[in-house]
Amino acid sequence: MNRKNEFVRELDCKLIDELKKEKLFQKNLLPDIKRGKVFPAIRKNRIDFYHKGGKLFSFDGKFSTHIKYASVYKFDKDYISELNEIKPIKSFSEKYNRIKENCRLYSGEEAEGVAALYSKSSYVKCTDDVVVLDIEIALATQDSPEHGGPEKEQKRRKQNRIDFLLYHKKKKILKFYEAKLFSNKEIWSKQGTTPKVIGQIERYNKQIKCSEKEIIKAYKNYVNIVNSFFNLTLIEPEKVDSNVILFIFGFDNDQLKGRFKELLKDDQSLKDVKYYAIGDVSGLKIDTLWNKIK
Asked: First CA to last CA across the chain, in angstroms?
């Protein structure tokens, strides 16, 4: 039996009020959000905060983070002789910078590449026509639930998570992007065969087409929430591009002229998808990523 999960972006007013009162938000997260160091993403009655490619915190009435980020202690000197000289922290705010550092250390190169984009072009701070509006988007699907227990279900959800969403404020258009590092094996296949990423993009395109009205409604809510929350003036979106863009990065000039040209361009592996490729993502302008798609 098929099932359909609703795609929702909303925050209860009470939850927003609670978040604004939190010391961790007031003292640490909000200043970093305004500087582009932390990216806030609205979910269903939850807000996630990302830093350098990792999910730093979530807030659903209380803050949570991964144990590998929060495994920090306070101590008075650099060298200790007894374990009782170190003490666990009593709040996330107490060692916020160390938690951020741990978050960055656990991030992969692909996630860091996306982070370079939202750090410069977050909807909170960027005044350009194009902004990063959301990241790690888990779209609702109409697929039958996959049998095999929680591990397979978690893998399925991960495979249906689009990396980031750009929003053109003047055109009022949403556009999804899937990011792949040049070394990612999913973009490569033997000559004359189709890379795995093509099927992934096609699946996303179908999901967007089936859920277009839901997606637009969800991001209208999203825009209204962040406008109120961060005192912004974003206009509600009216359209979503049904083509997910493949974003390839992290290669040098030799790789561009060699493997990229031979196995992706000349072999026409990418002929069925729209894509943008750049070696170094650090200097990429967000409007170029929107306009220069092949």
From this structure: 39
Q: Which of 114, 134, 102 is nearest to 184 (CA)?
A: 114
Q: Is 80 helix (H, G, I), strand (E, B) or coil?
A: coil
Nearest to 48 by CA among 114, 141, 134: 134
Please give the pLDDT value at position 259. 82
Give the C-alpha separation, 85 to 234, whole Å: 50
Q: What three-state secondary structure class fits 119? A: helix
Cβ contact 273:210 at 8 Å: no
Query: Tokens 């939202």, residue?
Result: 118
Candidates 162, 185, 136; CA nearest to 242 is 162
Query: Residue 191 CB: number of other CB atoms within 10 A?
Result: 9
SS3 category, 89:
coil
pLDDT tens per residue across span 147-196: 444 444 444 455 579 999 999 999 999 999 999 999 999 998 887 778 99
pLDDT digits (tens, 9 = 90+) for 43-75: 999 999 999 999 999 999 999 999 999 887 555
If you search the block for the tokens 């196995």, which residue do you land on?
A: 263
- Would you state the pLDDT for residue 253? 85
Report the amino acid identity of residue 224.
N
* Sign (positive or negative) of CA dihedral 146, 147, 153, 156: negative
Q: Which amino acid is at 85?
A: E
| Residue 79: CB atoms within 10 Å | 6
Across 131-157, average pLDDT: 63
- The span from the CA of 112 to the CA of 116, in Å, is 6
pLDDT band at 80 (very low <50, low <70, confident <90, very high): low
